[in-house]
Each structure stands twice: as C-alpha cells, then as structure tokens.
Amino acid sequence: MTRVDRASRLVRRAPAAVFAAMVDPQALLRWLPPEGMSGRFEHADIRPGGSYRLVLTYADASGRGKASEDSDVADVRFVEIVPVERIVQTVDFPSEDAGYAGTMTMTWELRPAPDGTLVELRAEHVPPGISAADHAVGMASSLANLAGYVESRTGR
C-alpha cells in the first residue's frame, strides 16, 4: 500500500503572495528547510518541466542524514505548476539506503480562505525510510516557515 502523508496550514496572506514565495528560489531557501536545517541549491529551474537539487544540512552533525552524516539531498522535478493554485513535483532522495529509494510525489494546493490562504500539502509514495512522525514534523515546520516568511512581508 502506498503511504500518503498530509499537512495543512492557514497563511494569512492572499494566494498570490503565497504562490510567489513558492516559486522564488531565494524565498524557498528561507522557508522550505525544516527547523534545524539550512539549504542550498546546486541548481534551480522553477518552471513546468524544470527541476532543482536542494542540499539540506543539519545544524547539528547528528548522523541522521540520508545522503551523508549531516545532510539530505532532494532531486525535485516540476510536473505541474498552475499559478496561484497548485504545484506538483516529484522528489527523489539520492542515498545508499534502500529505505529512501523511490519517487515521492508532493502536491501543494492553495485555496483562498476568509483570512488568507489554506495551503494543503500531500506527499504520496513516501519512502519507508522516512518515518511518518518525522515527516509530519518536517512538513509542519516547512509550512510554519512559509507562513512566517509570507506573513512578515510588506504589502499585505
């Protein structure tokens, strides 16, 4: 059975402002890495059919990394980008550990809400090496970072 993980968050800004932060590489580096991690792009081509390689580094060298002791690597390809509505991407985690093999599909949906935008995240085909609890924490952290980033911007 394919595992599906979900998370959502209300962001108190209009969908256009949220979407802009989701397709701007500099903004992505500010909000996408979960708490306790920093990120850098090896390349970023954000458009339908484009891709990016994100290297996430743990603040503490804990030995938890998928790619090395202190880092994770995500190879992301954009399947669909519908401005101000949805981003669908596939994610691969280069690792020697077979538990991280396979391609995960992540769908980000933006829905107008009375107080801003409801951002819904769905991850399908989650590799078994990613625990459901850790994934829930990571997704919630990224969504909280997104909200903090977008809500702190001027031009509300």
Helices, strands, pairings?
Layout: E1 4-11, H1 15-23, H2 25-31, E2 37-44, E3 51-58, E4 71-82, E5 86-92, E6 103-113, E7 116-124, H3 132-152
Antiparallel strand pairs: 1-7, 2-3, 3-4, 4-5, 5-6, 6-7
Lateral strand order in the biggest sheet = 1-7-6-5-4-3-2
Largest sheet: 7 strands, antiparallel
Number of helices: 3
Distance between the termini: 43 Å
Overall mean pLDDT score? Answer: 90
Low-confidence stretches: none
- What is the helix fraction of residues, given as a range? 10-25%
The run of helices and strands is: EHHEEEEEEH
Number of strands: 7
**Rg computed from alpha carbons, rounded to a whole number of angstroms:** 15 Å
What structural class do you assign from the helix and strand content?
A: alpha+beta
Instruction: Tell me what portion of residues adopts beta-strand conformation.
Output: 35-45%
**Global shape:** globular
Provide the descriptors you would attach to this structure in a database record:
156 residues; 3 helices
Explained architecture:
The protein has helices at 15-23, 25-31, 132-152, and strands at 4-11, 37-44, 51-58, 71-82, 86-92, 103-113, 116-124. It has 156 residues and is of the alpha+beta class. Strand 2 and strand 3 form a beta hairpin. Helix 1 (15-23) packs across helix 3 and helix 2 crosses helix 3. The termini are far apart. The model has no long low-confidence stretch (mean pLDDT 90).
